Every structure is written in C-alpha cells, then in structure tokens.
Amino acid sequence: MGASAPSTRAIGGAPAVTSRSEAPAPVIERSCPSSTSGATPSRMARTLPATEWQCTTERGCDVTQRVLPWLVIRVGPERASRGGPAHRAAVPPDRHHMEFGHSDTLFRLAMESSAIGMCLVAPDGTFLEVNPALCSMLGRSADELVRCTWQELTHPDDLDLDLALVAAVASGALDHYQLLKRYLRPDGEVIWGDLSVGVVRNADTSVACFISQITDVTPLMAAREALAESELHYRLLAEHASDVVVQIDAARTILWASPSVAEVLGWDPDTVLGQRIEDFVHPDDVGRVIEDLDDPTRFSLGTDEIRVLRLDGSYAWVSGRQRRLDRGTGSVVALRDVTERVVARRSREQLNARYRLLAENTTDVVCELDVHQTLRWVSPSAEVELGWAPRAVLGRPVLDFVSPPDRERAAAELAELWSGARLPDAELRVQRGDGEVRWMSIHGDVLRDEDGTVTGAVIGLRDCQAEVVLRRAVRTHAAGNAVLARATSEAELLVEMCQATVDEGGYLLAWYARRGHDADQSVEVVARSR
Description:
Blueprint: E1 27-30, E2 71-74, E3 78-79, E4 85-86, H1 93-113, E5 117-121, E6 127-130, H2 132-138, H3 142-146, H4 150-153, H5 156-171, E7 177-184, E8 190-201, E9 207-216, H6 218-240, E10 244-249, E11 254-257, H7 260-265, H8 269-272, H9 283-294, E12 300-309, E13 315-324, E14 330-337, H10 339-360, E15 365-369, E16 375-378, H11 381-385, H12 390-393, H13 404-418, E17 423-431, E18 437-448, E19 454-463, H14 465-486, H15 490-505, E20 511-515, E21 523-528
Antiparallel strand pairs: 1-2, 3-4, 5-6, 5-9, 7-8, 8-9, 10-11, 10-14, 12-13, 13-14, 15-16, 15-19, 17-18, 18-19, 20-21
C-alpha cells in the first residue's frame, strides 16, 4: 500500500467547492452498489433545515469492471454577502453528467500518463485499477495485478507494518500514511518503493477503496546502503586506528571522538564531546590551529605539528590533518602522536648546534657533505687553513679538492664511509685555494635520519704537513743508513739513496748531481731514482 494525501474530491466527478469562512466544508459521501453494471443505486439523502439546500449527483459504475464506485456529493449552504441564506440555481442533470464524465476522463488520462505507479485498491487488498508505470515497476501486466493482492507483492519483512498502517486507516485512526517498503518482482528481484496511501470512504465511513501512489526508489536505497556501508567501514577504521580522529562542526565543537583518544591523550571519548577543539590545544598553537580550521583551502593544522593537552596536564606533540565535510558542516580531524619524533629531532638539533659551534671555533676544517658527496657546509677555518672561501666551494664535489694522485684512494674511502663504516684517519694531499698541495689528516662519519637512512656525512680535515714531512725525513734517513751499509760502490750508493728518497720520503723523483768546474758552472747528473 502507500501514502498520498486523503482524497477530498469525488474521483470521476467535479470537486465540490465552498468558502471556508462562509459555509461548512463539503461533506463527501460515497456508496458502492452491490449489483453489477446497470444496477440502480440507492440514493443517500437526508432532511436539511429550511436554511439549507441539497445538490445530489449520482454516477453508477461496476466495481467488477474496475471503475469507480457510486459517488454521492452533498454540499452545505453558501451565505449571501449581506447575510441570510443564498440558494444556487438548480443545475440540469445532463450538466452534472457532462462534468462527471469530463473529470473521469481527466483522472484516467492523468493516471495513465503518470510517471509514478498509481492504483486503486479494494479494502481486501485487491487491485481495482493500475496504471502502466506500476505495471512496469512491478514487472507484471494489468491483468496479472488485478488477479492478486498487494499483500502478495510485499516483502515478508515489511508486511506486518503495512498491514498495521492499513488497519489504522480503516479504523479512522489515520487519514493517510507514507512508507518505504520492498516489493517482490516475478523474477525474484526486490525493489524499494516510496508508498503513499489515501482513502475514499463510504457514507458510513467504511473504506470504499484506497488510493496509492508508489515511486521506485531502488537506486536511491542502493546508494543509501552503499553510503551506510562506507560510513561503517571508515568508522571501524577510525575506531581501530592508532591516530586520534575527531569530528567537529562549523563552530569547532567536538561531535565524535575515536576510542584512541583515551590511549594517546588519556581522555575518555565521552568527556570531550561538546567541547571546543581549541580548548585542548597549547596556548602558543591555538592561533595557528584556528586559522587553519577556518581556512577552507588548508588541510594541515598549525603547520603540521602542534601540542595537544593530555589528561595529566602534559602536552603531546601531534601532526594534524583535516578533511572538510560537504556544505560547510564541519571537518574530520586526524591527530597522530609524533612526540618521540619531535623530541628526537629537537635533541639532534641541539646537539648539531653544539657541534656546529665547536666546528666554527676550531682550527680543523669541518665539512658537511650531502648524499651526492658535494659540499653542503664548511667551517670558517677552511679559508684560513686551505684558502677556500666557503661560498665559492659550496655545491662542488669534495673530490675536486683532492690532489689527483690521491683521488682514487679518496673515492674508495668515501665509498666505504657511505656503506656505513666509520672513516678512519687517513692522510691525503689536498689542494689549497692558491694551488699549493698540503697533507691533511681526514676522518668522518655519516649522518642518518629517523629511519636510519644515510643523508650525508661530516668530514674533519687537520693539517698534518709538518708531521708527514718529519716522519718521511726520518724514514729516508734510516733508509739511507741501510743503503750506506750495504752499498759496494759509489755509483750503487748514489742510485740507492735517490730511490730511498722516493720510496720513503714520498717524492716523485730524486737525483744526484755534481757541479762542473767550467766557466758556466754546469751541473752533471751522476745518479737518479729508478
């Protein structure tokens, strides 16, 4: 069945109209003949006072042919403008029959052309009249529908409620009703209908028939079910997520909070409902949070990291993100606890600041490399020790400043460092800004982020030129003594001394010469390294 507004006009006849302020509302009475087509109905009449008149119109019809029942319209008096009863002129019977026939045609045309299902239903549930839209919706022809009842087409789970509403209308407790219910199609498909039901009563107030309108809302109900499932899915995700999820309205009042708020912040979810979200934000962060919440173009809160009040009075660092709801009704805010990350980062920043201060005030040269082994930062001492202007060397590969003979070894040392091994003290020749080569002692270690990924390295360089020269001189002297002890001739002694100078002293070439006694004081090379 279904729910349209109750009928207040005679179906198949012209409506009775009277002024509400000047006369009683029309009394519409209906009766159904017990005989078949052509039977003469019994008139319904009553004796009216002298100040009233009566207009009675009759139209016979056969219920078995699924047309309208007998309708009798009785209209009360209409007052004249100056007071006292005013009587209408009698309307010829053929005029009444013409008007009723015209209205009946209009009603049937409207019913046939309607895009929604319409039907007239007998008190026992039998279909009396059905339109094409209803046949299409229910998947049955008109002949099939008039041979069954609406109860047979109703989903079993919806039948009891619909029967109860029909009984309430039949008893007079309700004038009409509206119901979302399911219908069964012959192919087994279940469809949803938005049903509106009105009633036409007989003179004795018994039900003559029900007028039903049914709109197919199956796609709408499917969309609602999909939305409900989606909401349930995301609600379950929110309730079991470690992040704190809250829903706020346009005034930033908390409407819902996930259970994780108890674990992360110590608050019972029910205790935070109805409070403003900014009441839980650190005073120094409130301004930024409100600005972000009120700006429809922003999705982060307080530039990503803010402090939120815990139940014990302390504050937790959280990263906040928001998703705005449709039509500006509020937002869903997700808060992730990042306290450990923020504390670790700040500790590292403080430690780096201390090391940076030490590096800037030491005589050693300190360099910071990025993942591409290019110079990202150098200490001010680089200009004093190596003649490097910091701005001139930043962004250049560090190997550019290593003397060519040592670059291969330096590249191997850096590769070992990038693999995670600490760079031991190594001596390399480094080019100064003026082109001179200096021996430098080099050591370093890699930099890592929170995940342990290598993000760069820090390398220290200490001038060890004097140490290298002294150490090699000592080794050269010792090697020379050994050569002197084993040499068997002067020529052998001179060649071996030159070679020891190259091997132990670190020189590229060594030679021994004698000065000539000629006028030009020429030099004669008598021995050289191999």
